[in-house]
């Protein structure tokens, strides 16, 4: 088993969080009165007029790219790029509209680039978004031949009543977790250190694309409307994304899916790690890709709806007034 943690693998989440806090003082100097939600949220929200807001966000795929490059499989990476952006849009209550991409190569390989674009098209179709443009750069000296990096940018729309608001949240409201398809696109700087290049089958499991939650989430909002109160995309930082719903509540986690209930790739990978439960939950999504906050009175009905559509989900806990803390009660994986 490996005792290497995410920081030792080259990613310092604490430093990244501190960086965001520092630029929160600088970036808002560019804001005008139309900016309703800016840096630090899952997506920014901009007021077009009294009836319509725009939401926008940007993201990448991280070092999961290296596995795709090693296996020479790139379609799923294109899906990942879309998923990492569009799932963030959902967390402010927006409906996805369109997507743009940026691809940078050491030397352009048209086969690989077409495979990446085909994956993005697949992801956009799943999300109901138009892929309306992008940029492709060749950067010899920055990337080696066969290497590339990606960035995605997505925009959605919402009305004022569709924007999630802290005032709608109450003590006792229930956290429901929707299953992830695997590790999604986070934690790969550590994961790649635990797998040999020759372990093709396991590497292919690690390459499974990030789950896109648009269809499920939009269905829940349409059916249960104001009873869907907030959402958290479980990306870098893992469970610590949940308090981004509101820092004025605490989040009590009373249960979590077992390793056997998670996507199959978790079991062999977790067996190779010697990390504390706290570190695991701070680094990986741990089987839950999107956490949804639901009015207590409708939580059972939401679970029944998800089960009826064969969507794996779990009740994770509830919220109380507080200061953005997570309490994990006495349970273990």
UniProtKB/TrEMBL annotation:
It is an enzyme of class 6 (ligase). It is found in: Cytoplasm. Residues 171-323 form the PurM-like C-terminal domain. It catalyses: 2-formamido-N(1)-(5-O-phospho-beta-D-ribosyl)acetamidine + ATP = 5-amino-1-(5-phospho-beta-D-ribosyl)imidazole + ADP + phosphate + H(+). Pfam families: AIRS (PF00586), AIRS_C (PF02769). It comes from the Bacteria. InterPro entries: PurM-like_C_dom, PurM-like_C_sf, PurM-like_N, PurM-like_N_sf, PurM_cligase. Its main location: cytoplasm. Keywords: ATP-binding, Cytoplasm, Ligase, Nucleotide-binding, Purine biosynthesis. Pathway: Purine metabolism; IMP biosynthesis via de novo pathway; 5-amino-1-(5-phospho-D-ribosyl)imidazole from N(2)-formyl-N(1)-(5-phospho-D-ribosyl)glycinamide: step 2/2. GO terms for molecular function: ATP binding; phosphoribosylamine-glycine ligase activity; phosphoribosylformylglycinamidine cyclo-ligase activity. Its EC number is 6.3.3.1. Residues 43-157 form the PurM-like N-terminal domain. One of its GO terms (cellular component) is cytosol. CDD domains: PurM. Belongs to the AIR synthase family. This is Phosphoribosylformylglycinamidine cyclo-ligase. It comes from Bdellovibrio bacteriovorus.
């Amino acid at each position: 088993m490996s005792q290497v943690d995410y920081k030792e693998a080259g990613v310092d989440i604490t430093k990244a969080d501190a960086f965001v806090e520092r630029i929160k003082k600088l970036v808002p100097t560019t804001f005008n009165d139309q900016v309703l939600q800016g840096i630090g949220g899952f997506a920014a929200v901009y007021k077009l007029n009294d009836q319509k807001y725009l939401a926008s966000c940007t993201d990448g795929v991280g070092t999961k790219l290296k596995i795709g490059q090693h296996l020479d499989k790139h379609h799923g990476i294109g899906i990942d790029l879309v998923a990492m952006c569009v799932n963030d849009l959902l967390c402010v209550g927006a409906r996805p509209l369109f997507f743009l991409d940026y691809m940078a190569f050491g030397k352009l390989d048209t086969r690989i680039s077409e495979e990446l674009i085909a994956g993005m098209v697949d992801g956009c179709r799943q999300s109901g978004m138009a892929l309306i443009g992008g940029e492709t750069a060749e950067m010899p000296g920055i990337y080696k031949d066969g290497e590339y990096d990606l960035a995605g940018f997505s925009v959605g729309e919402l009305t004022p009543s569709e924007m999630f608001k802290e005032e709608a949240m109450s003590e006792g409201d229930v956290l429901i977790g929707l299953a992830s398809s695997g590790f999604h696109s986070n934690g790969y700087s550590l994961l790649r250190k635990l797998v040999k290049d020759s372990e093709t089958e396991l590497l292919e499991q690690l390459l499974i694309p990030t789950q896109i939650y648009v269809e499920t989430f939009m269905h829940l909002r349409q059916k249960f409307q104001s009873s869907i109160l907030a959402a958290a995309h479980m990306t870098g930082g893992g469970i610590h994304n949940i308090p981004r719903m509101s820092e004025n509540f605490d989040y009590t986690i009373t249960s979590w899916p077992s390793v056997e209930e998670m996507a199959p790739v978790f079991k062999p990978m977790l067996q190779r790690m010697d990390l504390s439960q706290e570190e695991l939950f701070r680094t990986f999504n741990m089987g839950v890709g999107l956490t949804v906050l639901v009015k207590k009175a409708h939580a059972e009905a939401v679970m029944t709806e998800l089960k009826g559509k064969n969507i794996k989900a779990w009740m994770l806990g509830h919220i109380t007034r507080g200061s953005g803390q997570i309490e994990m009660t006495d349970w273990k994986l």
